[in-house]
Amino acid sequence: MVLSAVPVFARGRHLFFVEKAGWRVAPRHDGKVKIPEIREQVCAANQALVPADLVKLTWGNVSGMDRASGLWCIKPSGVDYADLTPADMVVLDLEGQVVEGTLRPSSDTLTHLHLYREFDRIGGITHTHSPYATSFAQACRELPCFGTTHADHFCGTVPLVRALTPEEVEAGYEHHTGVAIGECLRGLGLDPLEMPAVLQAHHAPFTFGHDAMDSVKNSIALEMCARMALHALQLTPALGSMPGHLLEKHHQRKHGPAAYYGQK
Fold first, then answer.
1. Does residue 21 lie in a domain region?
2. Could you tell me the residue range of the domain that residue 96 belongs to?
3. What's the number of domains the chain is made of?
4. What b/e string do you get for 137-166 counting C-beta neighbours within 10 Å, with b at 16 or more?
5. What is the pTM of this model?
6. Choosing from 108, 116, 173, 261, which is the catalytic residue?
């Protein structure tokens, strides 16, 4: 079932969700440590946000998915990045039940959950409030491809996700954020690994990747492209997107079937 709920608090060994039907308790399962490699990767990916200058305070989270087990994990809510350990990562299943962990998961958990359920190729998700990309999101502007740096990483305009309705916010803000992102990508015919970033209107960016660290790298690239775009618009306010043949050449030489960037 798709959850239309928001996690509100953890008590003892249970995570509670508020749903229209009432209270639901998601028990944690005891036994062997779940997805230890993914937990280490997700912890490292969250800690990488700080030196990449993508976060201030605790304004961001990264998650990672293990498709083989159907389990994924995410940063605990409000915990400083310097204090994180792999054991702190909260492990969940694709029904939104906490499988392992003693801390409350990120407040954005239901957004990540919906995206993992809808797009089975996504292996990692990063959400930050990095200043340049967030400036475009707060201004409700998509991020056009103005030059080759952008084209090397994103094949075209990074899309803007619509704002949520009052009814969606009331029914389940984080869940419907994921729904809106999914609608945007599917409506534009975009694969989240081929266009691994979106800008949520009035909010901030979300990026996707093959795994947790890959999604962080996409956040770094998005922030740099947004920064360059803002500077370019200051110099040339009426600037248009770069020519399509240059965009295609730069993207395909790095990501296409005959790519020749990097080492094989």
1. no
2. 34-254
3. 1
4. bbeebbbbbbbeebbbbbbbbbbbbbebee
5. 0.88
6. 261
